[in-house]
Design brief:
It contains five helices and no strands. It is mostly helical and 91 residues long. Helix 2 packs across helix 3 and helix 2 crosses helix 4.
């Protein structure tokens, strides 16, 4: 499950808890929490639920917002799917 790592870190720091103390209270390892906050790894829903509980927020508050476009068609928005490709109109 995708998580907004920087937001988790911000909320944890705002609550005045250090990484190790918070991780211990939430029941996850400090190294795992660090990887989640740095977005190196995505947490399992259970781990995200533990984090949300200890931050006193909803899981939805810890998931990145999307703009409703998960199509993966970035090349179309970038204008790179023309008929001529990258070589141009050379005969």
């Amino acid at each position: 499950m995708k998580a907004d790592g920087p937001k988790i870190r911000q909320l944890r720091e705002t609550s005045g808890q250090g990484l190790r103390r918070f991780a211990k209270a939430a029941g996850i390892s400090a190294s795992h929490l660090s990887r989640i906050e740095r977005e190196v790894t995505d947490p399992q829903p259970e781990a995200l639920a533990l984090i949300a509980t200890h931050l006193k927020c909803d899981i939805g508050d810890l998931i990145p917002e999307t703009n409703g476009d998960d199509s993966g068609d970035d090349h179309r928005r970038a204008g790179t799917d023309d008929d001529e490709g990258s070589r141009g109109a050379h005969p």
